[in-house]
Write a structure and sequence with these properties.
single chain, alpha+beta, 17 helices, about 35% helix, Carb_kinase_FGGY, Xylulokinase, EC 2.7.1.17, kinase
Amino acid sequence: MSLVLGLDLGTSGLKAVALDARGQKVAEARAAYPLHTPRPGWTEQDPLDWARAAQEALRALCEQLPGAEVVGIGLSGQMHGAVFLDKAGNPLGPAPLWNDQRTAREVEQIEQAIPRSELIRRTGNPAVTGFQLPKLLWLRNQHPELFRRLYKVLLPKDYLAFLLTGALSSEYSDASGVGALNLAQKSWDREVLQALSLSPDLFPEVGESQRVVGHLSPAWAQATGLKAGLPVVAGAGDNAAAALGLGVSRYRAGVGSLSLGTSGVIFIPTEQPTPEPEGRVHLFAHADGGYHLLGVTLSAAGSLEWLRGLFPEVGLETLLEEARQAPLGCEGLYFLPFLAGERSPYLSPHLRGAFLGLSLAHRRGHLVRAVLEGVALSLGEVYRVMRPLAKAQRLLATGGGSASDLWLALVGGALGVPIHRVVGDEGAARGAGILALVGAGVYPSLREALEATAPSEQPATPPLEGLEALRKAYAQAVEKVLELYKN
């Protein structure tokens, strides 16, 4: 039986899966690594920790597959991070991550050099603190001696490809989150980079997600137990790869996805690179050759996890049951989930969360339900911005929060879109493996691979009705907080 491996380099750890030709998971392994926060607003990881985790996970996976024929490896990972390499291929320091907020000055620098409307037209997005391009300027501004030694800057999963094969490469879906890829041309935007006095040579070559970028080196084969020379496929950024794992692509019109993980993500494929004029939601390249709109609420299940930490005496099921008992609207209590700033549609790292309308009548269940409703209404505001550009007939739900019928019913009501659950395993590692099925020649095209591996679906709890009045009150509450944090 021929198998492919899919690797997902996440924020908390690396996940590796082995898939058969139908996309069914045969084996899985994980390896963790630390997250460092040396200063408020900074988040970074050591790329060498990623290397150790990849070897550990691949060894563990191989031990579960005695005698199996592995024919290819696909990659996925957290987007926007920056691995700064010298000419010898050694990291110059820690890699700032997607949620790192140290680059406010550099975002201003980009907007002074390139009008926001022009940057959105070219790259699909305004300058964002978490993107890779501002991190590159930060290195130049804060560590000029390191910048002089810089040879290439890679995205996290592309650094993994470099370790496995020695190839310096990227692909469109992940590269479109750098902030310097011209989406219409699908190439590094030389005029944007010239305006910032940056050389295009600092970035790797880019191409299609399913293409083979190199082959497993003898050193990594020996370290992992795999066969040297295995084709390694470029892969995709985590959101695009996760969408492929769900079968969400340009080939299934009207089907998008909703992730209720630490962040809440709405993903809707689109054929054309048409950005939201104000850049309030992201436009990226999809791994299927098309594009996708992406709207993000930064603290979705992360908000619930934060609240749960305040009540260690009870379990999550108890808290959710208490939330079920509370009425819709929580008797005037609203929660704004801006615990780590906000991405869509406000693009403000300075926003902060709030409970508004708190009274002596409110109990623990009200607080929990207010969090569920606040996240749902926040995602509703995100979809209101996306809807004129791309509508979804249904969304496929993933992430830990999708296990809650109440939460999916609230989100479905806030968005006005039916939500389905997928049956079976999903995630970015699965999407990376599906791309490897194409790169290794198991399927002649990505479309055929997606048709063969698409998971089955089941409708979730019907959307709750009556959320329009709640949405208006929530929008008013948001306006109060926006006014408070506008400076």
